[in-house]
Amino acid sequence: MSDVDGRRYRVVVNDEEQYSIWAADQELPAGWHVEGTEGDRPVCLDHIERVWTDMRPRSVREYLSA
C-alpha cells in the first residue's frame, strides 16, 4: 500500500482499547486518546496490525474472562 495523500497520522485508542488512525493536524473526537505512534498512513496501520491482536472491546474480554 502506498502513501498517496502525504498526510501525517496518529494512532489513537479509546477506553475499550480499540485502535484507529486520525489525521495528526485534527482534534481528536471525544473518547479517543493518542497512543504514541505517528507517521504516514501505512506506518500507522502496520503498527495497529501488530499491536491490536484481539479485536474484541475491553469490556467484552473482561466479561468473558470472569
UniProtKB/TrEMBL annotation:
- Which segments constitute the MbtH-like domain? 2-50
Instruction: Output the superkingdom of the source species.
Output: Bacteria
Mention any one GO cellular component term assigned to this protein in its UniProt record. Answer: cytosol
According to its UniProt entry, one GO biological process term is:
siderophore biosynthetic process
One protein family per Pfam: MbtH
**UniProt protein name:** MbtH protein
Q: What is the lineage of its organism?
A: Bacteria, Bacillati, Actinomycetota, Actinomycetes, Pseudonocardiales
